[in-house]
């Protein structure tokens, strides 16, 4: 499906803006993230007649929503980024190893892949959080565990087809070892497929993180994430809807833009992948 | 033919065994299982009784075998929060989730499949683009956010619908729509591409040449041939639906399995968590088996080929 490039550029502009705000946004906010002002609780955003000192209003203990949103955005993006990278590296490595070793090792690794694919990941995440207790380390590892099986499957498939190509046979015949073969010759061939997969996985990890944080089982206070702010605001829906709606809208804009970019990349870079998935 | 079913069933059992082993490993690596299942303030005689009852004084491989046998027969232990049998707690929640899931699936299918067919028939038109835009929205929109927006609009502002709980048929509406939106978006997308694939096949042209009316060609000639990918997506989406139910049931205070899981995780009621994971996993694995079997029925080529 071809998407008008206008939507694509809009999505890219939005993503760039979001990243810039996440990185340097807090320099410009007059209020600290945790700075409370009990006299200015549940103030509506300035454009709805609130206090001009708090452009997007305040939450239940008078914390500035702008500062909270930027800090939550930064947390959500970094956790998702870390998770995506861990997942991609681990998954691709497993796929490479499976394709290289073949035989029973491949069978075992692919069975693990099937196992993870057979369960909704949030279930695995909740189990591990329940049994091991919530910690930041475990949480980031969980985000990394998400989606590794897609990379593994992808990498294995591409490697298997690449190693049967004449060029890799020629390289091996010329005396290249497996390390050189994989890093110099096969990785560049897998790269575009992996990048497409990364752009498709990233919004899913954002959704996973924000869902868990929304349920109160992810990022814990005093740290904050977009999902957690949203969950916090649920109790104040009737009096202060902006506490929930603003982070929700932000999450939606990010995942939507990322999906648009990912879909476009998939159609553009990888016609092979397209015919395989749709 | 028999081989096809047999391989499928063996794989299903294998996956179930994997899930059980996963639960066993998690249980044994996360601390003392007695503390985990009975709670830290259990009485010593309770602990001793529990140890011998669950065979925790036996060697590890024997414990493992016993564990598998007990889990497979539904002996999940006792919830430390209210002291009731875990299996009973789950049993009273399951119907609510099933009901919600079915309604959500129904809404998703009734919206998603016709939308996909329409988009494929009017390929490239404004209608097509509109439907596909909604489909992308449908799965980029986080369900907890959609739920909150609906509560804000229909419960708090317009005061048309109840915001949480159960009781009337109206209580179903918002949770089911929230839960079904993602599936509807996915279905619309896949139905569209599946239909596009078959619409310009030769048998479609033959049917047109024979004088079969347009709607009959679409419904009786194209749709059955596009059914395989659509059924696959419905099957694959069960996991999404369960994941969605965990969040949606919490948003709308729906007394189902998903909300039970969230409360059990946050209070670390481990016996309940473990049992729920096993029950949900078993459901999914069996559902996947059913989808596989359904393929064979839908398309004779598949059962012969494998």
End-to-end gap of chain B: 8 Å
Would you tell me which CATH topology of chain B applies?
A: MetI-like fold
Radius of gyration of chain A: 22 Å
Category from helices, strands and their pairing of chain A = mainly alpha
Largest sheet of chain B: none
Low-confidence parts of chain A, pLDDT < 50 over ≥5 residues? 273-278
In whole angstroms, the N-to-C terminal distance of chain A is 10 Å
**What is the mean predicted local confidence, pLDDT of chain B?**
83
- Using the 3D structure, state the CATH architecture of chain A: Orthogonal Bundle
**Assembly classification:** heterodimer
Number of strands of chain B: 0
What name goes with the CATH superfamily of chain A? MetI-like
Number of helices of chain B: 13
H/E element sequence of chain B? HHHHHHHHHHHHH
The count of domains of chain A is 1
Describe this structure in words.
The complex is a heterodimer of chains A (278) and B (306). Chain A has a single domain, classed as MetI-like (MetI-like fold), CATH 1.10.3720.10. By secondary structure, chain A is mostly helical. Chain A has helices at residues 5-24, 65-101, 103-117, 121-132, 136-145, 148-163, 166-173, 178-214, 226-233, 242-269, 271-277. The radius of gyration of chain A is 22 Å and the shape is elongated. In chain A, helix 2 (65-101) packs antiparallel against helix 3 (103-117), helix 2 packs across helix 9 (226-233) and helix 3 packs antiparallel against helix 6. Chain A is built from 11 helices and no strands. Chain B has 306 residues and is mainly alpha-helical. The radius of gyration of chain B is 24 Å and the shape is flat. Chain B contains 13 helices and no strands. Helices cover 80% and strands 0% of the residues of chain B. Chain B has a single domain (86-305), classed as MetI-like fold. The chains are: A mainly alpha (278), B mainly alpha (306). Chains A and B meet through helix 3, helix 4, helix 8, helix 9 and helix 10 of A and helix 1, helix 6, helix 7, helix 8 and helix 10 of B.
